[in-house]
Design a protein that fits this description.
Number of strands of chain A: 8
CATH architecture of chain A: Alpha-Beta Barrel
Distance between the termini of chain A: 33 Å
Mean pLDDT of chain A: 97
Helix content of chain A: 40-55%
CATH superfamily of chain A: Aldolase class I
CATH class of chain A: Alpha Beta
Strand order of the largest sheet of chain A: 1-2-3-4-5-6-7-8
CATH topology of chain A: TIM Barrel
Largest sheet of chain A: 8 strands, parallel, barrel
Oligomer: homodimer
Shape of chain A: globular
Structural class of chain A: alpha/beta
Order of helices and strands of chain A: HEHHEHHEHEHEHHEEHEHH
Strand content of chain A: 5-15%
Amino acid sequence: MPSFGERLADTFLTRGHLCLGIDPHSFLLEEWGLPDTAEGAREFSLRAVEAAAGTVGIVKPQVAFFERHGSAGYAALERVLAEARAAGLLVIADAKRGDLGSSVAAYGEAWLTPGSPLEADAMTVSAYQGVGSLRSVIARASANDKGVFILAATSNPEASETQTALRDRGELAGWTVAASIVSEVDLLNPDTDRLGSVGVVIGATVDAVDYGITADRLLSTPILAPGFGEQGATLTDAPELYGEVAPNIIASVSRGALRAGAGGLRDALRAQRDELAEALAR
Amino acid sequence: MPSFGERLADTFLTRGHLCLGIDPHSFLLEEWGLPDTAEGAREFSLRAVEAAAGTVGIVKPQVAFFERHGSAGYAALERVLAEARAAGLLVIADAKRGDLGSSVAAYGEAWLTPGSPLEADAMTVSAYQGVGSLRSVIARASANDKGVFILAATSNPEASETQTALRDRGELAGWTVAASIVSEVDLLNPDTDRLGSVGVVIGATVDAVDYGITADRLLSTPILAPGFGEQGATLTDAPELYGEVAPNIIASVSRGALRAGAGGLRDALRAQRDELAEALAR
């Protein structure tokens, strides 16, 4: 099987760079006329998968909105993950998991193991405990042709104090936390002429210069890019926002598309996909 | 209802400071003669709860080992959380969740809402996206008399590069990431003569001085202290390790007790509880 990075590069070519964030938020369930239950979240998400299939190449279920409903929510999520993968979509579980030792290994096992009930194609993880703490997850991803996206510079304003802090020791002393993560990930994607399988999250609302993040460390790294739509960034600005590594971005939209409702979602996605493709082709 | 901090202080007085980490790791399931399934994890954990009830005051299920088994694992976890709370134990869900906006709010809802299937007394969270990103979780905890423990200085060696990075901006410029989190939490526990409900995680293997963490910012903050036992720290050293704020620690042991097996666990816990109590009374 091709690696996650290879499958992602293929998806970019055939279906573009847009990703639908599947967020069964209570207010969206209400707008869609669905109950605020695990069943409502399942119905919502399956309709979202149906609209995404054949329209875009990537979906990103937000795990928190399923966890809210406990084990019933997780059963709904299992169904959504399976249907999305069966429909040929690349599925990124937006879980932001992180821990140490055998605990973080168990998270990797949950999301990145073929045949696991929660199997996805990739997951998001957090390196508060160091990129080194994620070693087992990255190794599992590689062994199973899965992907990992490590939070680097996120799109919320409260994040900057931590993410712009400067490393005080080690080889990357003087680098920001976000830029050091980007740099450590760069070493994990050594093949410069194709996209690697270890990605980073860099929000579209982030000023990369302010974080000391430079394009030369992102040449073969997939970039999960939230922050488009309701959070403020515009898809047509993607080339300016990501510069020479804009071809590596997965531009994620959630509410900005989901608010179109079950009936309008496919058209909304198609319009946004084309808008993004046109901007990236400029 | 008394606040989480008040209930914790009462637990310290009546049952001591030891916490049993419930880690249904596959190798422990095997040692206990249980299958490596959701049912095995449930049985393991219910026996652990039974041994803990009346022996110690606090348990900390590691969510990753349930998530491994998908929705069936979550159903097992729901049962374990409910039985532990019904047995009068304070239950800390070791989830290390973190996100922004309505996503992180959904995590707070999942774990800290009375009547929710995953209801616990407290949860661990990660502030990679900033302490400010956790505002909704902290507010929910406060409204529901629940607790939150924010990762500050964790017990794994790979963590130090991130956690000792120095803030470059804001009021706490020049402070380490870990010390700034401790300081921000201090402001959330303003009542100096009693324990607050927002805690931090500071591993027993961490050199607090190296992280710039000082006791004067921890006077009313509960400290979740992993790293005892197999990770290297000794319970009898707790007073030296935590200094004047040792009375605020929840000393967590997992494998070091669980390896005693279902039959030996209660005695192992009793011995470790007494060893810790004696050390803290010195």
